[in-house]
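User: Can you model how adenosine-5'-diphosphate sits in this protein?
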Amino acid sequence: MKPAPKNLPNKKSPFHYLFIVALVLAGLTFFQGGTLDKVLGEKKFESIAISELLTKYRANKFESIEIINGQKIQAKDKEGKLYQAIKEEGATVKDLGLNDPSIKTEVEVKDNSSQDFWRSLLIGIAPFLLLIMLLVFLSRKAGNMGDSGPFGFGKSKAKTYNKEKHATKFADIAGAEEAKEDTMELVDFLKNPKKYQKAGAKIPKGILMVGAPGTGKTMMARAIAGEADVPFFSVSGSEFVEMFVGVGASRVRDLFKTAKRNAPAIIFIDEIDAIGKQRGGGSGGGHDEREQTLNQILTEMDGFESESAVIVIAATNRPDVLDKALLRPGRFDRRVQIDLPDMEARTKILKVHVKNKKLAKDVDLKAIASKTVGFSGADLENILNEAAIASVKARRKTISQENLDDAVEKVSIGAARKSRRITDKERAIIAHHEVGHALSGHFTKNCEPVHKISIVSRGGALGVTWFLPEEDTYLNSEAKMKDEMVSLHGGRIAERLMFGQTTTGASNDLERITAIARSMVMTYGMGDAQKIGPVVFNKRNRGFAGIDFESGKEFSEETARIIDIEVQKLVLEAEDRCVDILTTHRPLLKQISADLLTKENISKEEFLAYFE
Ligand code: ADP
Ligand code: ZN
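Assistant: Here's the modeled complex, given as structure tokens:
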């Protein structure tokens, strides 16, 4: 997707070379310090007693004698054989009688002791030298001397994009019209910073781009850079959290320095919530890596002179967990919201991404868009890619509607697993379970229409009943939530009606029912008006590391009991309605389940045909 990043130059410091020199030195001293002697020298000498050596001398057997360091006597006889003896210290040539003028042996006294001194000094010192080097090396790595560290530890991993390369333009982004409008003026800022400076207008420093994953936040930031034709430096919040304390801060410093050098420019910080979570939320310590990095970002942004046209864009899908300090004026004080695409935008996104793909003539992208409520731009791109792969596997030249439909299912629930071995009895239970969901949903007023029923197992699910809204909805009504609970009960009730018992397959349904009932009572004030009223009981708090937790109960034990009773009432009410529906339509339940067992999948049209 992204153009190849151009890495920042990574120059080696003089320190780097010093390190290598030290290693070579240590190696040399090791060899000098004896090993060579042992290998090449001493083996050739035959050790003999000093008295024997002197006897041989007197017998005129030797050609030459060397006295080394006043200790060793080495002798070579006339056949070239070598001998060695150790003399007592202090004994002179004269003492030993080696100065006999009648014997023509050459006697030489050698003193290597000063050489030895240096050698042993080196051997002694080298390890310390190495140790000191290592210490300096480590302290540099940990300290904030990012630039000069031997391996560039403090370098920001920011990716830069060549001007020619970042071809992303607003035209590549489908939909997201409001976000485009909001950011249009940034492009102008970056293009003509002087114009705004002359007018005394402040250039915005920080933009917070808010939106679900895959909605195109990165793409939008790159498009701003593309439109303004300025360099784009991107880094991810999660990258900052590294092994060594202080590295994050030095990376930030480096990143901002590079961007300022290249101003006007854009710095993009993805996943800012990874470092910018609220501080002091019950976590101990405080001076952690995350906080230092965050502080450095704030310091850098505060230090911007008004003429440096660098705009920092930070992306997150959790603006609510961000530290308030980030959102103060002069920092990330502007917000651009990017929503999940609606039906129209989804169609447009699909159209953008089919440009380089060959579609069969009958493909209806609108139909795909209508099936993909809640999908992000990235999901849609993924669907087209999966469909393309499937068409290649089937050795077809074009992507068919079927490829696309399969891809939608694959992306939303995971790939079909036909190989999973399920017994016939289990299949029958699963079929009735799913048809139970579909029927009980169908006979309520407010459930979404059934889109598909399937007993082909995918991902973790053994079967699915797929309800799909006909249009995007943003509000849930009380009646609808109640009806949803009815259809969620359908699976379990159908099992009980037809097989006399329920299975573990319904546990997820029950969890969802309970969650709906609890939120109705505790969050949305939909409980019994007389007993509990429209009071919110589960205010969410943010705590350690930005993790949500339900705060300590802010209500009495008595209220807690009433809540439990109310929740239970809602769940049981829904169950009763479900039992009614499925008992009344038992013949239909049987028939559709039997058909599902043979067909494996039942489409919306096939399902609706049962009620004509
Ligand atoms: P985010 O940063 O919000 O997680 P990205 O910018 O990485 O999302 O989007 C991932 C991919 O999804 C993009 O590279 C692009 O191909 C596709 N995409 C997302 N939204 C759109 C859109 N509105 N129009 C076209 N493509 C989109
Ligand atoms: Zn179920």
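A couple of observations from the model: The chain has a mean pLDDT of 79. Residues 1, 173-176, 211, 213-219, 315, 349, 352, 377-378, 381 surround adenosine-5'-diphosphate (ligand 1) (CB under 6 Å).
User: Helpful, thanks.
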